[in-house]
Amino acid sequence: MLGSKNGYQLAQCTSTGHGFVVNRPGFAELAEFYSVNRSAHLFSDDLRKQVFPGSKTDAYRYVKMFAKSDCFPGSFLEVGAGWGYASEFAAQRGCKVTALEQSPECVASLVERIGSSGEVLLTSFEDFQPRAMRAYDFILMSQVLEHSIDPSVWLLKAKGLLKEGGILVVAVPQFLGLYSFLGLNDPFICPPEHLNFFTKKSLRVFAENAGFRHLATKTYSRIPYYSLKAKLKSSVAARIVYESLKLPFFCLDTIGVSMIQIQVFKGLA
Length: 269
Prior knowledge:
Elements: E1 3-5, E2 8-12, E3 19-21, H1 27-37, H2 43-48, H3 55-67, E4 75-79, H4 85-92, E5 96-101, H5 104-114, E6 118-122, E7 136-142, H6 151-161, E8 162-173, E9 196-197, H7 200-209, E10 212-220, H8 225-232, H9 235-244, H10 246-254, E11 260-267
Parallel strand pairs: 4-5, 4-7, 5-6, 7-8
Antiparallel strand pairs: 1-2, 2-3, 3-9, 8-11, 10-11
Helix pairs in contact: 3-4, 8-9
């Protein structure tokens, strides 16, 4: 056992290093948690946070990964889209987009932004009912798989939704990465919001067990400028700290000690 946090027991797999919540909440409990804890904010508010690298930068990164495929642009599914920057960029690049999201505000914003380039659905991945299996060339799960009650179920469903040879990109916090020295004070260990804590090895094992072939792993670290500005109460100080962290983060990323990991997989026949 790793210990307990927020009333939840945490354990770790001895072979892969994967961390997980033992006494996992049910769907009803999670729905209540998110309905109480999800703070309402606007797309315009989120855009103000994109002056320096943020989720728009990440979205560009993901779409560029998909664009390396011979079948790009194609059919694109984003699971847990949030404000849907990746879906928007994919649509602009010619993809036919399906975006799944549980926030009404995010759905309404994305519907307006991508127009007829795709569909935006107010639903969870568990409840998503596709018109057909093997329907997508690309699936993106960015900062969402760690929220799932059972990542194996999600990855098996993703495998069934991908066309043969389709590409899955998964981005999650890296467990035992940059914040490992903090132990259970790691900010990404936050049950019941996060229920799974993936090492590079454990994410790869989960995906391969679901029928995917691993193609690549990338990592990065970043503390958003807007978070620094809010904490330091000074845009100048925040910019200085932000710039000064680039070199040490680059060095840590080079040796694989990062905040975020991105893994790319191909669906097998």
